[in-house]
Each structure stands twice: as structure tokens, then as C-alpha cells.
């Protein structure tokens, strides 16, 4: 029956106990209202279909219910997990073990799995085995953030210097930062070796192979260390390269060399390379432990060496030693000159 006071078209009959509905301006809302009023009278299956139709209709309305399935928001996490699993499987195929794969995935949180796979593959192409490659990436996680194009360019540059497969493998095992350090820092180290210290190109590459840690050294300190070896200890370029002199800390070099010098067991060669006492080989000075150095080379008690180190530190604090000549000219110490 029609309502005489209603200004809109007649609505379908409503069940008893239901209030007067709000006016509907759109025909679809009238149909939805009719569907909702008729719901109690429908059979079970018809009721389910009516509810499904109602939900579908509300899904198209701004602010409506259930615009997308509930399981869909989990899809990105599922895709990320699938990508990690895929990369882990490919790393295993490359020769990494389960523990190494887990360490690589946890080395730098936030790294895209494909980026990690690309960097690891580049290191293997350089000749590294899976174990040293894993050590390099976990020790320097910043490598995982390098663009692959930049990584390939740096590897090509190192090969042009002469660091081929075996040599480059040793450098990367000891100093993986060579792949990520700024180009100007790398050029500064090479410039000191070639122009300041006057090493040949082959000798400079051999220094990088034997002493990769010089890449982290300050160029000024690196130059001073060479001058100390050349002018104060009388070492030639070939000896500096062969013995790996530049890899030792400057404090250790000064302490042991000057201790031997004051004991009379070491003397700076003159211009002709001659000395009044036979100098011990450099390997017996720097490559041995402190106990072996004192027992075999210095032949002095440990407490005397400890006192000397304290006195040397005090002397350096009170009167710092001036820099050595930088013009490259050999100079023999004058008689009575104390170093």
C-alpha cells in the first residue's frame, strides 16, 4: 500500500517491525533496500545470494565494505619471500653453503635480493671462491649497495693496472674496500708510489699485491714511511717491495730499528752502501715476534726494550723528529750525528 505522505514513488512492502526507511534518490538504493527488507523471508541459499549481491554493490561505493580480498595485502610480503628464496637457491647453485647464504642475506638489511646476487656473481667472476667472497661482503657490507655498472668499471680499472686474477683475488681478500673507495683516494695512493717514491709501474702493482693495506693509508704517511726506509735504514726500492716493508706500522719499525741502532747492531749505510757492522736482514727485524726479535736479533732482555720504548715515546713528545728529505738525494749521516 502507498503512503499518502510520501513524496517519492511507492516502495515495496516492508516486514512488520521495521521503521520507515529514508528516501532513496537512486533506483539502485531502492532495490538494495527492497533486497534487505526481503532478506528474512528468503530461503537460506537465497539469503546468501542476497548478502553477496549487497556486498558487491557496497564495494563500488566510496567508503564501502571490503573493496579487495583480505588476503591480497599479504601479497607483497609473499612476493618478497619468494624472491629471497629464489636468490638463496641461486647462491647455493653458485657454490655458497647454507651458512654463507644466510650471512649474505643478513649482511645489509634492505638490500634487494637481485642486487645481492649480482654483486656476489661479480666477485666470483673476478676469481674469488665463495668463502673469501662471503668474507669480503660480510666484512664490507657497503659493497652490496654498489651499482653493478660502477663495480664492473672498478674491476676493469684494477685489471688495467696489472692486478689480474690471482693478484686481484689477494687484494680483495685483504682489502675489499678497494671496490668502493673513491677514485681520487685510489689515485692519490698510486701517485705517491709512482711519483713521490719513484717505484716503477710493476713495483707499484707488486706493492698493492703484497701490501693491500696501503690502500687505506694516508698518502703523506705512506711517503714518510718510504723515506724512513730509504734514508734512515738504507733500503733500496727492490728491498722495500720484496720484504713488504710498507705493510708494517710505523711505530713498530721505529722502535725495533732504533733499538738495534742504539745497541750498535744496525748502522745506516753510507753513499756507497757500506756499513761498519753487518745489518741484520729485515725479516729478522719486522717479520718475527717481539720475543724472537729480542732473543735472536737484538740479544737484549725484554725489560730493557720496554724501558727503551717508554723513553722513545717521551723523546718524540718533547722533540718530534723533523721530516726526512723529500728531494730523493741519498745522504749519509755525519760523524756523531744522532738520529
From TrEMBL:
The keyword Signal does not apply. GO terms for cellular component: mitochondrion. Heterodimer with NSUN4; this interaction may be required for NSUN4 recruitment to the mitochondrial large ribosomal subunit. This is Transcription termination factor 4, mitochondrial. It is found in: Mitochondrion. The lineage of its organism: Eukaryota, Metazoa, Chordata, Craniata, Vertebrata. Residues 316-339 are annotated as: Disordered. Its main location: mitochondrion. GO terms for biological process: mitochondrial ribosome assembly; mitochondrial transcription; rRNA processing. It comes from the Eukaryota.
Amino acid at each position: 500500500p502507498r503512503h499518502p505522505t510520501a513524496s517519492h514513488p511507492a516502495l515495496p512492502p516492508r516486514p512488520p517491525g521495521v521503521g520507515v526507511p529514508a528516501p532513496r534518490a537512486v533506483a539502485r538504493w531502492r532495490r538494495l533496500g527492497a533486497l534487505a527488507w526481503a532478506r528474512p523471508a528468503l530461503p537460506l541459499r537465497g539469503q546468501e545470494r542476497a548478502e553477496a549481491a549487497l556486498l558487491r554493490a557496497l564495494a563500488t561505493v566510496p567508503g564501502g565494505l571490503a573493496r579487495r580480498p583480505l588476503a591480497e595485502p599479504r601479497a607483497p610480503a609473499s612476493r618478497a619471500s619468494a624472491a629471497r628464496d629464489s636468490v638463496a637457491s641461486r647462491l647455493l647453485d653458485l657454490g655458497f653453503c647454507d651458512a654463507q647464504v644466510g650471512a649474505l642475506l643478513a649482511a645489509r638489511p634492505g638490500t634487494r635480493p637481485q642486487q645481492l646476487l649480482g654483486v656476489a656473481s661479480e666477485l666470483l667472476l673476478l676469481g674469488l671462491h665463495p668463502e673469501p667472497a662471503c668474507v669480503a661482503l660480510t666484512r664490507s657490507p657497503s659493497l652490496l649497495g654498489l651499482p653493478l655498472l660502477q663495480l664492473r668499471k672498478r674491476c676493469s680499472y684494477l685489471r688495467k693496472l696489472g692486478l689480474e686474477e690471482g693478484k686481484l683475488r689477494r687484494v680483495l681478500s685483504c682489502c675489499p674496500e678497494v671496490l668502493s673507495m673513491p677514485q681520487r683516494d685510489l689515485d692519490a695512493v698510486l701517485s705517491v708510489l709512482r711519483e713521490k717514491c719513484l717505484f716503477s709501474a710493476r713495483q707499484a702493482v707488486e706493492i698493492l699485491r703484497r701490501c693491500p693495506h696501503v690502500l687505506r693509508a694516508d698518502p703523506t704517511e705512506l711517503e714518510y714511511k718510504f723515506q724512513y726506509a730509504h734514508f734512515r735504514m738504507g733500503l733500496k726500492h727492490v728491498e722495500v717491495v720484496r720484504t713488504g716493508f710498507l705493510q708494517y706500522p710505523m711505530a713498530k719499525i721505529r722502535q725495533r730499528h732504533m733499538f738495534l741502532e742504539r745497541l750498535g747492531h744496525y748502522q745506516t749505510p753510507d753513499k756507497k752502501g757500506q756499513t761498519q757492522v753487518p745489518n741484520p736482514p729485515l725479516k729478522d727485524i719486522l717479520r718475527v715476534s717481539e720475543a724472537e726479535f729480542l732473543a735472536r736479533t737484538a740479544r737484549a732482555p725484554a725489560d730493557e726494550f720496554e724501558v727503551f720504548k717508554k723513553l722513545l715515546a717521551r723523546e718524540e713528545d718533547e722533540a718530534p723528529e723533523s721530516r726526512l728529505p723529500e728531494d730523493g738525494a741519498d745522504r749519509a749521516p755525519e760523524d756523531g750525528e744522532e738520529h
